[in-house]
Design goal:
The complex is a heterodimer of chains A (214) and B (113). Chain A contains nine helices and seven strands. By secondary structure, chain A is mainly alpha-helical. In chain A, α3 runs antiparallel to α4. At the A-B interface, α1 and α2 of A face α2 and α3 of B.
């Protein structure tokens, strides 16, 4: 057995369908990715099936570990192909956003997505539509503001937890000034007619103030 | 080939046999796994040297894939076997690397001498 045979084998894996993808498919190394879920159209994720064999599949056979650029391209292709032909289009866009977010994106690496309608935005009438960055929408980052603005503003349609989690992704699009916590100024005021001091509360406060500032 | 739970005793061409190989190998039959051939040096020598029955090596991989695909086509493939096959290929490659390294070392030494 020599090095040429070894090289021949890794080449065979690349050009012939020698990887068994359960259930019942044979694929080449080029068709496969080393990931647990398949987020890339036409690629088969095989890491679940061949646990702890990454040295063989990635190191030797040359199966690709998906990288940021692959997902950015996938997003671009998905948006360009449009919602008409793709099942669960919006959900796939959301999943891609959440996934790209985990891959340490930079503003530069996400440049190709800058003009594309990738942000799910809830409109006044409750419908959710994918919009580009240039569309005027706000981002809810506090529960009280979420309650106050629901149905009154065009809001990025991610849950509060997701918005917090998506900070790396959103910051690449220069969206800091869209966060409601920065846009909203909170003011307290007293309504006309209720200016009579509450006697019990006033006494309580006086006592505390005395203790605090003694 | 003697009988086991799966099949009756039968005759096979030397070219359809391996000497050492894993028990799950489907495209050729590894003989050293059979009770009848174990610990019999003269017999082993005869099979390996005279009949040229080889040990399993990377050159046998392609045939095994064809065989497995055929089994898969008949719905008789199981994932654990293919996992074992990939592990075996990995093992054979590592062994090939190790022997290549030893060879280079040997060549280096002999050229120095």
């Amino acid at each position: 057995v020599n090095q040429d045979t070894k090289k021949g084998i890794s080449q065979n894996f690349r050009h012939q369908n020698l990887i068994f993808v359960a259930p019942g498919q044979w694929r080449s190394a080029i068709d496969c990715i080393w990931a647990t879920t398949s987020q890339i159209e036409g690629k088969f994720a095989i890491a679940n099936q061949y646990v702890a064999m990454d040295e063989f599949f990635v190191g030797f056979i040359g199966v690709t570990v998906p990288y940021l650029g692959m997902f950015v391209d996938e997003m671009k292709n998905l948006i360009e192909s449009g919602p008409g032909l793709v099942l669960g289009f919006e959900r796939r866009v959301r999943n891609l956003i959440l996934h790209i977010n985990t891959l340490q994106p930079t503003a530069e690496s996400l440049q190709p997505l800058w003009e594309l309608a990738i942000f799910p935005v809830k409109l006044h009438d409750g419908r959710v539509k994918l919009q580009p960055r240039s569309f005027d929408f706000a981002i809810v980052d506090r529960q009280n503001l979420a309650d106050a603005f629901d149905g009154r503003a065009r809001l990025l349609d991610f849950s509060l937890e997701e918005v917090w989690k998506l900070e790396p992704f959103l910051s690449c699009f220069d969206l800091e000034d869209r966060y409601l916590s920065r846009m909203v100024e909170e003011r307290s005021s007293i309504k006309e007619g209720s200016s009579d001091p509450h006697s019990v509360l006033t006494r309580n406060l006086r006592r505390k103030a005395y203790a605090l500032f003694r | 080939l003697s009988s086991d739970e799966l099949q009756k005793a039968t005759w096979a061409y030397p070219s359809d046999c391996l000497w050492e190989g894993p028990i799950y190998w489907r495209s050729k039959t590894p003989l050293a796994n059979f009770e009848e051939y174990k610990d019999k040096t003269i017999l082993a020598d005869f099979l390996q040297r005279t009949l040229e029955v080889p040990n399993l090596s990377l050159t046998h991989i392609t045939d095994e894939f064809s065989k497995l695909k055929e089994l898969d086509y008949q719905g008789k493939m199981d994932l654990t076997n293919i996992q074992k096959l990939y592990k075996k290929i990995d093992e054979l490659c590592l062994a090939a690397d190790a022997s290549a390294r030893m060879q280079t070392r040997y060549v280096n030494r002999t050229t120095r001498e």
